[in-house]
């Protein structure tokens, strides 16, 4: 690891120190970031997509993006949140061009691993609310999913989706209006 990544006082280097070392071309620092963050990224992405190969592809794309543009992190917020934003966009990109993704994912999901949360979401999917949600544009669905289903704040959703905070608010407003109209 570079001297900068080792410059911490006791303990492990911080994510910030590691990212700075990655910016200096330190592959070991990138490996350490991967070791720290890949497990939870894989777990969260797997909750969104049952196709392990797509999850792996999204994680690979995430750390490739970090290697190529480590200075894209502007220094505000947690590096973990920045990584999640890259990872979820990579997964959405991998899913976007595919048709009937929901049907294929349902078939891939093992039935015995159904959680209470998944049962509630399945019931919602098969209701009028779910049908109305599916009719939203992908941009509006992504904002609703990030803020309502994932429980992110507007600021966190903006960082996750790579759009301005005001865009999240306006898309959420449009989504509410469309959902309200569809359910009346």
Automatic annotation (TrEMBL):
Name listed for the protein in its UniProt record: RNA polymerase sigma factor
Family: Belongs to the sigma-70 factor family. ECF subfamily.
Residues annotated as domain RNA polymerase sigma factor 70 region 4 type: 130-179
Keyword presence, Transcription: yes
Source species: Nocardioides panacihumi
Segments forming domain RNA polymerase sigma-70 region: 33-99
NCBIfam families: sigma70-ECF
InterPro entries recorded: RNA_pol_sigma-70-like (IPR039425), RNA_pol_sigma-70_dom (IPR014284), RNA_pol_sigma70_r2 (IPR007627), RNA_pol_sigma70_r4_t2 (IPR013249), RNA_pol_sigma_r2 (IPR013325), RNA_pol_sigma_r3/r4-like (IPR013324), WH-like_DNA-bd_sf (IPR036388)
A Pfam family this chain is assigned to: Sigma70_r4_2
Keywords in alphabetical order: Sigma factor, Transcription, Transcription regulation
């Amino acid at each position: 690891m570079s001297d900068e990544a080792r410059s911490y006082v006791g303990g492990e280097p911080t994510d910030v120190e590691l990212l700075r070392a990655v910016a200096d071309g330190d592959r070991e620092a990138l490996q350490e970031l991967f070791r720290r963050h890949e497990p939870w990224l894989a777990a969260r992405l797997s909750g969104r997509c049952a196709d392990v190969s797509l999850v792996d592809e999204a994680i690979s794309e995430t750390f490739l993006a970090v290697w190529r543009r480590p200075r894209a992190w502007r220094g505000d917020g947690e590096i973990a949140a920045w990584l999640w934003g890259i990872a979820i966009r990579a997964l959405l990109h991998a899913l976007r061009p595919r048709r009937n993704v929901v049907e294929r994912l349902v078939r891939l999901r093992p039935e015995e691993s159904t959680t209470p949360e998944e049962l509630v979401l399945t019931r919602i999917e098969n209701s009028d609310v779910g049908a109305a949600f599916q009719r939203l544009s992908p941009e509006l669905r992504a904002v609703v999913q990030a803020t309502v289903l994932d429980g992110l704040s507007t600021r966190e959703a903006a960082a996750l989706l790579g759009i301005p905070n005001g865009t999240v608010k306006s898309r959420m407003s449009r989504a509410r209006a469309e959902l309200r109209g569809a359910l009346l």
